[in-house]
Amino acid sequence: MTSMKPAWVAVAFVFGCVGSERNPLFCGDGICVDPERPFCDVDASFSEDPGTCVAVSCTPRAFERCRGDTALTCNGGGNNFDLVECPLGCAESAAGCRQCIDNAQCDGSQVCDPITNACRACVADDECSSRVCDVDAKRCIDEREVVYATGETSGSNGDCTLTSPCSFAKAAGRALGHAPALLVRMLPGAYGAIALDSLTDQTLHVIATGAQFVSGGSVAALTVDRGAKLAIRGFTTLTDGDHVRCGSDNAATQSRLDLRDVVLRSSLHGVTAIEARRCALSMTNVGMTKAGTWFVSASSVAADRVMLQEGANTSLAMVGTSSVRIQNSVLENQRVFLFGLGELILSHTTLVYPGNTAIEDVCSKARVAGMLVLVENSILRAGAGDALVNPLPNGACTFSNTLLSQQASPPPGTFVGDPKFVDFGNHDYHLQAGSPAVDVGVPGMLTTDHDFDGTPRPQGAKPDLGAFELAP
């Protein structure tokens, strides 16, 4: 906050004498002689007339305004302005001198913010000159640590650089041939089916923001097999065939696949989204539209923040000895078919059935004694009609602190109430104030410190049930 004190001066003329005294308000030469009015207001920013000396009262070290390429900053005493020349210009949005006008003026790991003209940590890949941001460490990856792929036919002749990208197969081979392995950046655009099927001790890390995998027929959009290890972020699929296939029953070595920030889309219901056979699969922030069928055989699946929308005729089928753990997720019309041993744990998950489909689909399809199905700290919401939950006599289905929307005879570990979603009809399953799901979470087999949106848990005294925390 700056205030200027008005000043008046009396000028006396003595008849018959010619004399002069410097006007303390005048600074046409840039100099103010009155210590009470130390700042020369050359452009009338603080007074009515340019070239006037003014008194200053300001917040020490605070930016006041720009004067061309000069920043006016309050001095340490709060009684004058320092004039700071700005090599890259001054901007009100930058609160003074621009620190940068593009990434070239920043440390190689940072980006230039287009609004504040200040260097900052990256939050998106395309902000970086290398087109790769380490979103966890929030730093740009050096272009020398990256090989580049394209889905264009020109990739067959490319040298895997940003200006001359190559095919994915060539980029993967070059990345894995380096110790430690380089990172692959799949540049935005359409790609055919992608496959990685060679055993290696190294994990191939791929950033695919803006890339779309398109396939059809029996060929999956993404295949990882024969002991390959892939961690991939950012792609979308568009196919009416299988979307992601990891491992195979006859593979000598288990494959590994980490999916993050991925969207699987199909125009048909019931399409296989995930097929895992002898695979260690991790899924974080994965969206599935219509393509919601999972097939898991002799595999482990850890899923966090999965959204299955427009599900119909979709199911989770588990055979052999497998482990599937799903938390902070939303599953619409997800049926469960269990034909093997192992475990299925649904924690802080919202399962919804907009039609009359019974919630019993979660439990009553279990086939094998000894298969654990645990639903904890979750919400099960049916549409119209009664919702029945029928745990098998062998105890294959267990509930813990789970809210059911409708139930004539609630099984142990459940209670009945309206979860009070924001808009059930439009698939908004956030909670409203007064929901019985708020602040009632208890410790379970799976722990989490966030919800589907990334909001920290808990927001209140205890975590909320279901996928979403009610933020104050």
Describe the structure.
The chain is mainly beta and 472 residues long. Among the domains are: 99-141, no CATH class; 188-312, no CATH class; 314-472, no CATH class. The chain contains 1 helix and 39 strands. The strands form 8 sheets. It has a 19-stranded parallel sheet that branches. Strands 15-18-21-23-25-27-30 form a 7-stranded parallel sheet. The longest helix has 9 residues, at 168-176. The two termini are 33 Å apart. The relative contact order is 0.05.
Low-confidence stretches: 4-18, 390-394
Please count the beta strands (DSSP E, at least 2 residues each).
39
The structure class reads: mainly beta
Note the total helix count: 1
Q: What about the largest sheet? A: 19 strands, parallel
Q: What global shape is seen?
A: flat
> What gap, in angstroms, lies between the N and C termini?
33 Å
| Beta-strand fraction estimate | 35-45%
Overall pLDDT, averaged?
A: 87
Q: What's the gyration radius in Å? A: 32 Å
**Percent helix among the residues?**
under 10%
In short:
The chain is mainly β and 472 residues long. It has one helix at residues 168-176; strands at 39-41, 52-54, 63-67, 70-74, 81-85, 90-91, 96-97, 110-112, 119-121, 133-134, 139-140, 146-149, 183-186, 189-191, 194-196, 204-207, 211-214, 222-224, 229-233, 236-238, 244-246, 255-265, 272-277, 279-289, 293-297, 300-309, 314-319, 321-327, 330-332, 334-338, 341-347, 350-353, 372-376, 379-382, 397-400, 402-404, 414-416, 421-423, 428-431. It is built from one helix and 39 strands.
